[in-house]
Design brief:
The chain has three helices and eight strands. By secondary structure, the chain is α+β, with helices and mostly antiparallel strands. It has two domains: 3-71, RimP-like superfamily, N-terminal (GMP Synthetase, Chain A, domain 3, 2-Layer Sandwich); 82-132, Roll (SH3 type barrels). It has a five-stranded antiparallel beta sheet. Strands 1-2-3 form a three-stranded mixed beta sheet.
Amino acid sequence: MNENIEKLIENCGMKLYDTESVTENGHKIFRVYITSKEGVSLEKCEEVSRILSPIFDLNPPISGHYYFEVSSPGIERSLKSPKHFKASIGENVKIKLDNETSIEGIIKNADDDYVEIGEDKILYKNIKKARTYFEW
């Protein structure tokens, strides 16, 4: 995503977590996920949406007709980059590896190359899917 978009989001007191383009019920949706240490309020989502909408009207993030949403990634969220893993140290995670092996545990450490779950050091390149989870 454009560095200027990230700065605009930061000016609202938030951080860009991720973006995604999905199709739900036959409608294309472009989502921007935002975070902050204080949490994400509906008001902050509205503020970021008001700032980004005119920019996306002039320079659409995806082609064709789409809906634009701003949201929190949620308490249970996908982890796609080293930045996501680093920000989730101490949280429960479920990881599926390329070889279909599943690992669950608490993220002990993360750097730019691997994440540490318990005694396992897992290279990001071997991760097929990762998600935090909350124990109720």
